[in-house]
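Now for a chain:

_____
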Amino acid sequence: MNILQRPLNGRILGGVCAGLARRFGWKPWTMRALFLISCLLPGPQVIAYIALWIIIPAEKEQPINVRVV
């Protein structure tokens, strides 16, 4: 399993669903669809999403190796 991080690429609105999908080995659209379906049920889903957006760290950008000749 991967580390729970919000990815730099492939995010939609913060990358929470993409990060959770990557962590559990799911496709990001599956996680997004499950989240949208869960919003039809009563509960604090949007508040939980915002909290995860704050809590889950963003993926760090990899430094670009430039070779100077």
